[in-house]
Amino acid sequence: MMQKKSNVLMLLNGAVILTLAGLFTKILSASYRIPYHHIAGDVGFYIYQQVYPLYGIILQISTYGFPVIISKLVSEHVANNEKKQAIQVIQVSFVFLSMLSLMLFGIQYGFAENIATLMGDKELTLLIQIISFSFLFVPFVASIRGYYQGLNEMLPTAVSQVSEQTLRVATILLLSFLLVKNNYSPYIVGAGAIFGSVVGITFSLMVLIFFLFRSRVVTTWSFSKQTLTGAVPILKKVAIQGIIICISGMGLLLIQLIDSFTLYPSLLTSGIDAEKAKGMKGIYDRGVPLIQLGTVVGTAFSLSLVPVISSAIAQNDWAFVKSKVNVSIKLSLVVGVGASCGLAGLMEPINHMLYGNIEGSQVLKMLSMLVIFTTISATIAAVLQGIGRMKAPAYAICIGVVIKILLNLWLVPIMYTEGAAISSAISFLVITVMNSIFLYKVLGPKNKLIRHAVKIIAVGLLMVMVLRGYLWTMNGILDAHSVSRGLNVGIALSGVMFGGLFYLALIIKSSIFTKNELRDVPLGKWLIKYIL
To answer: What residue spans of 270-369 are helical by DSSP H?
Structure first.
């Protein structure tokens, strides 16, 4: 009994380390785009964002997709004291990922010009070719991370993730600044920024190799004829489940990728000048860091309960699982709705504060609605994976992607970037609804949760009205036409504090969370004393 409890504690500690590393890297990955936009401008941001989803997919494969399934298979063998079988999982996974990565590298590098043409801009060819080199590192990075995670040693993965993103972001900002300063073309600046991704993943591999040699296990990974014995079942599990997990985590990336292939070309065919269309796409892409930051904050609280849920599943305590899932989803709703409605209510000063003007604020308001759906769907997908329903989120993503493609083709020629924003919101709404249906088919419906959702949305809408009134008042006092960027920074930050406190107070007074539920929520014990 004591051994089982110790294993659960080790699992939770490892999950905390990996969660904190993931949180740091996601915040960094979202926030660097704001200074990059200031360096490169709207057109430069368009160039970078057109090709970024291709790198994002590589990051998903090497960080969140295949390492998860590799670690699962390794941990199963380690638990049964089957060291040779655990090493075989690494060997087979490495061979499979090497073949997959070489194929993807060849396709992306060899057909880079064709891909750029499909995106409507042949000058993106060099950037696409540079990104393709990141594929060559995937087999090494994913296999080593999967190995250590399978041993419940999360430090190598965490350090490699943080190192990769930190060096990547530093390289992107430094190179882009130097290239702009020396008057290079926006596409060369973009190529320099994309090169930062290759630098990042290279350094990540160096960190992982350091851990390998330090632990002296690398000599046991040599290949032999025994590697092929029983390799087919391992190959099937790694390939099928790894791809499913990858797709499950690529929702926002795939939405961005569809925009890369359809938005700019559709603007051109609608008769918009190329330079203007690039600027419009760049302004539209301002929403990406806002959505990512909102989603990171939203999921940080709700996903903190996922390790607890996973340990309860391991002990077959389904009553506990249901109660914690309920709290997790309510948390994601509260934070997602709060972030989304807060952005919509304060978009003009936030846009001015972050990007120097208020262009595209209407489109960004529409895009801010995605935060609700991305937060909830990410939370539910994590829970579904935790209870062994890995295919469900992937199905939902696939349906959402098809809807996004069809709506973009229909709405963008009519409504331009606003059409793309609406199609993104609708597609993620469908993903969220599908994930919710999958979850409650397993755990059973929760009528109270629906009532709480209505309350939370009502409070969010009330906050939007209050914030719009606050903006109207401030603009009236300060004269909207002469409000400087500095004043808008003050308006935005004070609005965030005012709106946040107003929203939090109403949520607490609405009795959405019980006192017992709040005890499990980050900062919940502090909030309990404010409940009447």
So the answer is: 274-284, 287-302, 306-314, 318-345, 347-355, 361-368
pLDDT tens digits along 420-430? 999 999 999 99
Tell me the DSSP string of 315-330: TT-HHHHHHHHHHHHH
CA distance 115 to 131: 13
- C-alpha closest to that of 277 among 421, 53, 120, 414: 120
* Residues 341, 30: Cα–Cα separation, whole Å: 19
Q: What is the mean pLDDT of the chain?
A: 84
- Token couple for 366: 């529409």
**Burial of 157: CB neighbours in 10 Å, binned 0-12, 13-18, 19+:** buried
Handedness of CA 342, 16, 22, 237 (dihedral sign): negative
Burial 162-183 (b: 16+ CB within 10 A, else e): bbbbebbbebbbebbbebbeee
- DSSP letters, 42-53, are HHHHHHHHHHHH
Spatial CA neighbour of 377 closest among 344, 424, 320: 424
Cα(132)–Cα(107) distance, integer angstroms: 9
pLDDT tens for each residue of 233-281 = 888 888 888 888 888 888 889 999 999 999 999 999 999 999 999 999 9
pTM over 0.85? The answer is: yes
Question: Tokens standing for 261?
Answer: 């292939």
Given its phi and psi angles, is residue 458 left (phi above 0), alpha (psi -120 to 50 degrees) or beta?
A: alpha
- DSSP letter at 243 equals H
Closest CA to 354 of 526, 148, 493, 223: 493
What are the residue ranges of helices labelled H in 182-230? 186-215
Other beta carbons within 10 Å of 347: 25
3-state helix, strand, coil in the chain (%, to 5): 90, 0, 10
The token pair at 169 is 């972001």
How far apart (Å, rounded) are the C-alpha atoms in residues 322 and 328? 10
219-249 b/e with 16+ CB inside 10 Å = b? Answer: eeeeeeeebeeebeebeebbbebbbbbbbbb
Tokens 């309960």, residue? 305
Cβ atoms within 10 Å, residue 474: 18
The per-residue DSSP string of 446-487 comes to: -HHHHHHHHHHHHHHHHHHHHHHHHHHHHHHHHTGGG--HHH
Closest CA to 131 of 198, 222, 183, 227: 198
> What residue type is 229 in one-letter code?
T
Cα 59–chain centre separation: 10
**Residue owning tokens 């606003």:** 418
By the 8 A CB rule, do 203 and 164 touch?
Answer: yes
pLDDT band at 6 (very low <50, low <70, confident <90, very high): very low
